Amino acid sequence: MKIAILSRNTRLYSTQRLVDVARERGHVVRVLDPLRCYVRIAPGNMSIRYKGKAIKGIDAVIPRIGVTSTFYGTAVLRQLEMMGVYTPNCSDAVLSARDKLRSLQILAAKGLDMPATVFGDNPDDTADVLAMLGEPPHVIKLNEGSQGTGVVLAEKRSASQSVIEAFRGLYANFLVQEFIAEAKGTDLRCFVVGKKVVAAMEREASPGEFRANIHRGATAKAATLSPEERRIAVRAAAALGLGVAGVDMLRSKRGPLILEVNASPGLEGIEAATGVNVAGAIIQLLESEAGVALAPVKRRTQRAG
Ligand SMILES: Nc1ncnc2c1ncn2[C@@H]1O[C@H](COP(=O)(O)OP(=O)(O)OP(=O)(O)O)[C@@H](O)[C@H]1O
Ligand SMILES: [Mg+2]
Ligand SMILES: [Mg+2]
């Protein structure tokens, strides 16, 4: 198979692992910086070029699109989809996952539980928006944050109001959630590939910190999930249309709560904590799905042409 990885940096652990495993399994792999791909749009004739040469004959693409290139990266991915290339995570799914509000709305519609979440735009409504949530502490998050940046714990209502004012002043979209205290700074990262959780880790925040992100100093160890947690993780990935997803969950008094679903989850932490060959699972998904998905897309393109 000819596989493309959309990634800004060849040297990233996740990118490198995918390249190595794909080559080991006999595939031809290319890493394409999405910001160096340029496209031509025409009915029945969608094309992409990269550093002066046409990109052709790709069977499958793995998008690893960072927060800084969401718009352009997903546009390039969409072009590849329209050229009939298989992807486990399509552009629409990547866009939904990147937008925390949108993904929580989609998950709620499927009956999946999460910390109570509110948002509102007008400063005149802030008091009532917070009243919908209940008593502090509250967690205020940037809608498109990642690695725990822009996730703030406000112990008092006045602190929630100040943080909200600050985010509004920066024209940043945000959401406010109930704080799940009983999680005690620990969360679960469930790595879904296809319709299975292939690896899961429990991350514990460093002392004095409530965010269990490895980038914020958290430690990780392999986790054993309950059948319900597995089911929820798989359902969450499927609800957003993601074949590869990092589903973050908190263990709460009322059961597992989904925090977010990441469309380009890192491989380093999860492979180190669990010893699972997650990159291998992703390449195997491509092997089993790419052929299946190719045929109908190609037929559609020909009819449209
Ligand atoms: N409502 C909440 N109650 C308790 N802890 C929370 C809550 N929301 C977030 N956290 C903690 O903060 C961490 C970061 O939050 P979240 O996963 O929403 O943000 P992120 O920046 O997108 O992270 P990632 O790097 O995983 O993409 C969570 O892993 C969790 O430990
Ligand atoms: Mg995230
Ligand atoms: Mg997270």
TrEMBL record:
Mn(2+) 2 binds at E260, N262. Its cofactor is Mn(2+); Mg(2+). Mg(2+) 2 binds at E260, N262. Its EC number is 6.3.2.-. It comes from the Bacteria. Binds 2 magnesium or manganese ions per subunit. Residues 104-287 form the ATP-grasp domain. GO terms for molecular function: ligase activity. It is an enzyme of class 6 (ligase). The keyword Lyase does not apply. The keyword Glycosyltransferase does not apply. Mg(2+) 1 binds at D248, E260. Mn(2+) 1 binds at D248, E260. One of its GO terms (cellular component) is ribosome. ATP binds at K141, E178, F179, D187, R211, A212, N213. Keywords: ATP-binding, Ligase, Magnesium, Manganese, Metal-binding, Nucleotide-binding, Protein biosynthesis, Ribonucleoprotein, Ribosomal protein. NCBIfam families: PRK10446.1, rimK_fam. Belongs to the RimK family. This is Probable alpha-L-glutamate ligase. The gene is rimK.
